[in-house]
Amino acid sequence: MADTGRRTHYLVCPAGIPNYGDELIAATWLRHLAEVAPDVDVVVDCLYPGVAVGHLAGVHPRARFTSLLWQLCLRRWADESPAATCAWVEGAVRDPASVPELAAGITALRGAQVVHLLGGGYVNAIWPAFTGLMAGIAAAAGASGARTAMTGQGLWPPADDAGVTRSLIERFDVVDVRDAPSAAFAGLDPRTDHCDDVFLGFGPHLLRTDEEVPEVMVSVQSLLAGSRSAAEETVRFVAEVLRAWRVTDVGLLECSPDKDRDVLAAAEELLPGARRYPLDEVLAHGLPARPGQCWISTRFHPHAVAGAAGAHGVALAVRADYYGPKHRSLIDAGSSWRLLRDGEVPERPTSGGFGAERLTELRAAKLAVAERIYGRG
Q: Are both 61 and 144 inside the same structural domain?
């Protein structure tokens, strides 16, 4: 809990799952606050703080970790609608005595000067209970007058009761999304630059530089693939593509150790000799990406960071309504990767990746959002 009487910035994010993109976004904002607000207390309200602290401790000198709002949402996981979850979370934040075991954490939340929902794709129809995070933030600000912000949000596909989400968006002081469908849903202009939070802090520190990286990198997943057989079918397709490209120097990226275990085991069987890059190694030493390299990725953040490194690539949307807009947002923003249709074996890309000028534009757009929340330091 933050020290009494000190200014506090309160960050809400799904760090600690762990998952590459979620850890990366949390680290991005903590680094930014270490630059502009090193003397301000920072509370990171995340899904699994004990795991998150292993990756994020020390990024900001005054960061502390909790799971308050996530615990409130998870207690209502079985609710039939986001509206019911939101009403309960709001009630708890307004009346901490109703949940005495969490009252101290709620008091810390209500004492923050800024409450910030960090980017990601976790407030939508796939995980509707997490709409309660927005409700808890809005309730806390109603009690304290804190500035509220949501950045880099992927709101598509919208939670079933979309009216609840829209009404909560209206209660935030700063609203920022990362793709055109989310912008339209949130009432923002979909034609302006919307991008993921990672573009605020992209730089060489996110890339592996201590050794040669593989000619082709692969990121596959089972999460949201529909079934284990569907995930294994994706692996077989990737193996077919690599055979068509006549590539043997291959790396396999682990983004979420628990969720990727089975699909990566299947990939190692079909791609003997491929090097596996564990998540902890990637977070410690950087993504194994470089200019001119080629990627095949089902996941969004490897696409974003490898594309920013200048890598060429193709993207696979394992769930079209979720990953389609995510990958399309990066392609439209300048990655120039190709989004594959089902079963299509593509030619190996020979171009693609964000240019330096475009990266500067995207960082400037995100920095302008950051300054609306935290000022210039």
A: yes
| Residue 66 · residue 105 · CB < 8 Å | yes
Instruction: Give the pairing of strands 216-219 and 114-117.
Output: unpaired
Angle between helices 300-308 and 20-36 (to 10 degrees): 50
Write down the pTM of the prediction: 0.96
Closest Cα to residue 351, out of 314, 301, 305? Answer: 314
User: CA 161, CA 287: separation in Å to the nearest integer?
Assistant: 38
Q: Is 145 left (phi over 0), alpha (psi -120 to 50) or beta?
A: left
Q: Is 46 helix (H, G, I), strand (E, B) or coil?
A: coil
Q: 59 with 114, same domain?
A: yes
Among 301, 238, 244, 294, CA closest to 270: 238
- In three-state secondary structure terms, 331 is helix
Q: In DSSP terms, which residues pair with 314 in a beta bridge?
A: 296, 338
Q: Is 266 helix (H, G, I), strand (E, B) or coil?
A: helix
- Tell me how far apart the terminal alpha carbons of the chain are, to the nearest angstrom: 23
Where in the sequence is the domain holding 345, given as residue range(s)? 204-355
The position carrying tokens 């039939």 is 80
Q: Mean pLDDT over residues 75-99, rounded? A: 94
Tell me, what amino acid is at 310? G
- In this structure, are residues 179 and 325 in contact, taking their beta carbons and an 8 Å threshold? yes
pLDDT in tens, 309-332: 999 999 998 888 999 999 999 999
Query: Cα separation of 304 and 67, whole Å?
Result: 27
Helix intervals (H) in 59-191? 68-75, 82-94, 103-110, 131-144, 162-169, 180-186
- Min mean pLDDT across 71-80, 157-166, 344-353 is at 157-166
Instruction: Answer with the one of 194, 213, 240 that is the final residue of a domain.
Output: 194
